[in-house]
Design a protein that fits this description.
By secondary structure, the protein is α+β, with helices and mostly antiparallel strands. The protein is 58% helix and 16% strand. It is elongated, with a radius of gyration of 40 Å. The N and C termini lie far apart (116 Å).
Length: 207
């Protein structure tokens, strides 16, 4: 038997065995659809870009908050200095200031100038003062110290500001200490007024 005949028998042997056992030859692996692959890669890219954009926005927001609210603790301590300056100035009666000597007047003017510069420095760092005189009491912004019987104003109105409040950005740095009226007419909430108006309109239509 020649070498060529032996090789032919070896090549025919697997086919003969497959035919004898009835097994089908293994199919070749299917080729991936290029369009489907491109669509999947595009979706992955878009999701990655969206995640990066959300991360950038979140980082910018955190940096802004850190820059704005990072001085909150220091600003809260400085407010005590501003309060003491205001108390010192209010302790000087107008007639005493008018009759004061030149040196005392210069001292008072210096304290007032320092107070104004301190207020400017606080505003430059996002801290602003608010005085809610005449406004409706808001527990998120105000702290009630006492009640004042006054029937001439709606109940729950701020009739006296004991100490002004301060905001830093959109947050309350220190609530305002206030006196709140009681005994006057209560103002109806806006939503209740709207509901009553709608009820009157509905009743008019039905009638």
């Amino acid at each position: 038997m020649t070498d060529q005949t032996a090789r032919a028998e070896d090549e025919a042997a697997p086919q003969t065995e497959a035919a004898a056992t009835g097994a089908e030859p293994a199919p070749e692996p299917a080729q991936a659809d290029p369009v489907a692959v491109a669509v999947e890669l595009r979706d992955r890219l878009l999701r990655a870009l969206a995640d990066m954009e959300n991360l950038r926005k979140r980082t910018d927001r955190e940096v802004t908050d850190a820059r704005l609210y990072g001085v909150a603790s220091f600003a809260r301590d400085v407010l005590g200095v501003a309060d003491n300056m205001r108390r010192a100035l209010e302790a000087v009666a107008p007639e005493l200031r008018a009759s004061a000597q030149t040196g005392v007047k210069a001292l008072i003017d210096g304290v007032e100038l320092t107070e104004r510069e301190l207020a400017k420095a606080l505003e430059k760092n996002g801290v602003r003062q608010f005085t809610p005189q005449g406004e409706k009491f808001d527990p998120n912004l105000h702290q009630a110290m006492f009640e004042v019987p006054d029937a001439s104003v709606p109940a729950g109105s701020v009739v006296q500001v004991v100490q002004p409040g301060y905001m830093i950005g959109e947050r309350v740095l220190r609530p305002a200490l206030v006196g709140v009226s009681k005994g006057g007419p209560r103002t109806a909430p806006a939503s209740t007024s709207k509901d009553n108006a709608k009820a009157r309109e509905t009743s008019a239509k039905e009638s």
